[in-house]
Amino acid sequence: MTIISRGKWRSSTVSMHRVCLIHYHEIGLKGRNRLRFERRLLENLEATLSGYPVTRIHRISGHLAVDVTDASRIDEVAGLIAATPGVVRVSLAWCCKRDLDVMYEVARKALFDNDGFTSFKVAAKRSNTDFEIDSMQMNRLFGSFLCEAAPDAKVKMKDPDVTVHVEVVQGSAYIYSRTLKGVGGLPVGSAGRVVSLLSAGIDSPVATWRIVHRGAIALCIHFSGRPQTGDSSEELVEEIVEQLRPAAGIAKLYVVPFGDYQREISLSVPPKLRVIMYRRLMFAIACQIAHREKAGALVTGESLGQVASQTLANIRVTDEVCDLPVFRPLIGADKQEIMDRAKLLGTYDISIQNSEDCCTLFMPRNPETHADPDEVHAAWDSLPIDEWVEQILEDIEVTDCFCPAYHHSRS
Ligand code: ATP
Ligand code: MG
Predict the structure, then answer these.
(1) pLDDT tens digits for 152-201?
(2) Ligand 1 geometric centre to CA of 251 (Å)
(3) Is 60 helix (H, G, I), strand (E, B) or coil?
(4) Is the four-CA dihedral 411, 347, 221, 383 of positive or negative sign?
(5) Whose CA is nearest to atom 10 of ligand 1?
(6) By alpha-carbon position, which residue is closest to atom 14 of ligand 1?
C-alpha cells in the first residue's frame, strides 16, 4: 500500500495559473453532435474573449478550460463566459501540477478565496486512474489538511458554506471553490438563423435573448417612426444590441424608416384595423429579410393577451402574411417574469427610457382585438403592399453586429 504523507505547508512560489473551468451539461448529451457543439462553443468563446487576458481555450476531460493570464481579472473573464449560451457553470480555478504538496497549497488558497465561511467540505474527483490516490483518499487528505489550515471552520457534508473541488485529470490538477451560474442553453450557431422583430420595448430584447440562448443566430429588424418621428428608438435599440453583446448572437441590425408607411395606412384603412395593418406589413418585410438571410423563422416578444394586438384572433391574421413559423418565446410569460429577465440582461433600464417610436405613431383610440379576417383582407388588398415592400427593402439600413458564428452558419 502506498503511504501518502500530507506534506508541509510550503511558502515557496508554486507553479500554478488561473483557469476558468467551463461546465456544459446539455452539450454533453448530444451524442455524435457533441464535438460539433463543443467546437461551436469554443470558437464563440475565443471571439468573445479576444482582447481579454486569456491565452488558450482547450478541452480537458468533460470541460473546456480557459487559461487566464491576469489573475486580477479572472472575475471579469468568468462573468463573460457565464453569459455565453451553452455554459452551465464557470469555476474560477487554479491549475497546478499533480504534486500533493503543491495541491495542498492551492486548496488552501481556494478555501480562503471566500470570506466569512464557517463550514466547508472537499469534493475530490480523479478522472485519470494513473494518479495513485483515489477520490475517497483525496477527500480525507485534503479535508484534514484544510482543517488544520482553518481551525475555526467545521467540516459539513450537507450545505457547507464552501466546497473545495479538487479534480485530477491527465497531467494536471484543477482546484476551485467559487463557481458562477451560467446562462445554460446551447452555443450560438448550433440552431440556425431567425429574424427577430426588435422594438425598444421591454419584451422583444428578452425574446431575442431567449432564442439566441437556444443556439439561434438573430438578425434583428427594427421599425422606426422616422421620418414622422426622430430616431431616438433607433439609438435605444442600438444600445440594447450592445447590451446583449456577451451572448454573441445578434449578427445584424436592420432598421426600417417606417413612419411614412404608417401614415399612409392610417389615412386609408378603418382606424380599428391600423395596428393589424402595421403589424402585417412588419411581418411581410421581416419575412422577406428572413428569406434573403436563409433564416428559418421570425421571432417576436408577444405574450398572449398583453395588448390589443396580442389576442389569438389578431395573431392569426398577422401570421398569415409570412410563410415561415413565427416564434413567440414569451407567449406564456407574465410581464413580471419578463421584466425580471430584462433586468438581469441589463436591457430593462434602456427600454424604460422614453423614445419616439412607431409603436405610438398614428394609434387608433380603439384598436381591434378580434379582427375579422374578411375585413382585414379587404383593407390589406386596398394597399400597394408589393410596391411598398420592394421600396422598403431598397431603403433598409443594415449594421453588422457581433456574432462570430454567423459566417459559419446555415439556416
Ligand atoms: P415590446 O416590449 O417588445 O415592444 P410590446 O408589449 O410593446 O412588446 P407590441 O408593441 O404590440 O408589444 O409589439 C409586439 C412585438 O412586435 C414586439 O415584441 C416586437 O417583437 C414587435 N415589434 C413591435 N414594434 C416593433 C418595432 N418598432 N420594431 C420591431 N419590432 C416591433
Ligand atoms: Mg412595444
Answers:
(1) 999 999 999 999 999 999 999 999 999 999 999 999 999 999 999 999 99
(2) 20
(3) strand
(4) positive
(5) 359
(6) 302
